Amino acid sequence: MEQYKVLGHIGEGAHGVVQRALHRPTGRDVALKKLYVRRPDEQVPIQILREIKLLQKVQCKHVIKLLEVLPQGICFVLVFEYMPTGLAEMIKDARAPLTEAQIKRYLEMLLQGVEYLHAQYIMHRDLKPANLLVSYKGVLKIADLGQARMFDEKATEERPYSHQVASRWYRAPELLYGAKVYTEAVDLWAVGCVFGEMITKAPIFRGESDIEQLCVVQKLMGTPSTKDWSQLESLPDYNKITFLPMKAVPFEQVIPRCSSSALDLAKRFLVYNPDARISAKAALEHKYFFSMPLPCPMPEMPKPFDGHREKINSKECDTGDSSGLLCQKFNKIQIN
Fold first, then answer.
1. In terms of domains, do 97 and 246 share one?
2. Which long-range contacts (CB under 8 A, 24 or more apart) does 147-154 make?
3. pTM summary value
4. Number of domains the chain contains
5. Which of these three, 81, 109, 134, is where a domain ends?
6. Is 281 annotated as a binding residue?
7. Of 81, 99, 129, which one is at a domain's C-terminal end?
8. How far is CA 96 from the centre of its chain?
9. Same domain, 150 and 249
10. Are 41 and 130 found together in one domain?
11. 215 and 121 inside one domain
12. Is 126 considered catalytic here?
């Protein structure tokens, strides 16, 4: 660790803190993610080992690069390339609203990263703007693989996972219904949420609790049915929570002021039935990316300045109505 000089605080999560640092020998800025072991006599938590193993496995220009792993006392320090901001801050930056061409390029980079991860049989399970970082050159990179897991398409038995993954506003419906067996399609729902957020400048599904999140999704997408989603009734929490029947809001109102091709692509991500969601590979071939305006050329993409993350996050951003008010106004929730 003597090779690194800590320059400041970037953020913190459930398992550690992230700091900006200088690599003394090269003069390169890096990000240090400290993952703590609760007690020195404990074994290294499996979650930490999984994250390190997965990061060492991936080699993609749209997934954050792990440079080094250092043991330090009761923690492991993961050294990453430094990124001055994230997509969340780029969306919030009112001084430079994202154009349609820029949104297309960001979505294209996100899909290229997701396609790579899925080709390596990796589910990210926590895609959201805060975990999508942007370099000084404007390149988007998927970060934070702390909840990522390997999956096996060829397995003869379905493998159970935790349903308590993904940040609530980006959590797929099958997870909200308690599914413990699911696929990489949970990432594609999240991609659709991120896509909608880039267009509307606010999360499109905003619940204050897991139950309310399901309420908000159904308020906008309508009540799911077994006709379109055959596995619905077999989900663990399906019979525990019921809502009054709801009709879907026209998608033009869910994601307003966007092109017909953008709307069509968003609909293909935001589908109740996970088996019906468009794959990252197929999405990259969608007409949206080949219609005018074309994806913004990389030299013309926004180049975040040093301190962009801190400047944007120092301002309070109210990005929309409370979903709680939506549920109170339009629905009643019954918990069985």
1. yes
2. 148/50, 148/51, 148/54, 148/117, 148/122, 148/123, 148/124, 149/50, 149/122, 149/123, 149/125, 150/54, 150/121, 150/122, 150/123, 151/121, 151/122, 151/123, 151/183, 151/184, 152/121, 153/121
3. 0.89
4. 2
5. 81
6. no
7. 81
8. 22
9. yes
10. no
11. yes
12. yes
Residue of 153, 177, 187 lying closest to 226 (CA atoms)? 177
Rounded-to-integer distance, Cα 130 and Cα 87, Å: 6
Residue of 93, 126, 187, 210 with catalytic role = 126
CB-based contact 60:39 (threshold 8 Å): no
Domain that holds residue 76: 8-81
Q: What angle do CA 163, 77, 88 make, to 5 degrees?
A: 55
Residue 104, domain member (yes or no): yes
311: its two tokens: 């400047």
Same domain, 58 and 122: no
The full DSSP string for 47-108 is HHHHHHHHHHH---TTBPPEEEEEEETTEEEEEEE--SEEHHHHHH-TTSPPPHHHHHHHHH
- Provide the CATH number for the domain around residue 62: 3.30.200.20
Q: How far apart, in Å, are the Cα atoms of 245 and each of 21, 210, 267, 306?
A: 53, 19, 21, 49
Considering the domain architecture, whether residues 160 and 244 belong to the same structural domain is answered as yes
Per-residue pLDDT of the chain (336 residues; tens, 9 = 90+): 889 999 999 987 656 789 999 999 999 999 999 987 766 556 667 777 888 899 999 999 999 999 999 987 778 899 999 999 999 999 999 899 999 999 999 999 999 999 999 999 999 999 999 999 999 999 999 999 989 999 876 654 567 777 777 799 999 999 999 999 999 999 999 999 999 999 999 999 999 999 999 999 999 999 999 999 999 999 999 988 888 999 999 999 999 999 999 999 999 999 999 999 999 999 999 999 999 999 999 999 999 999 999 999 886 444 333 333 444 443 444 434
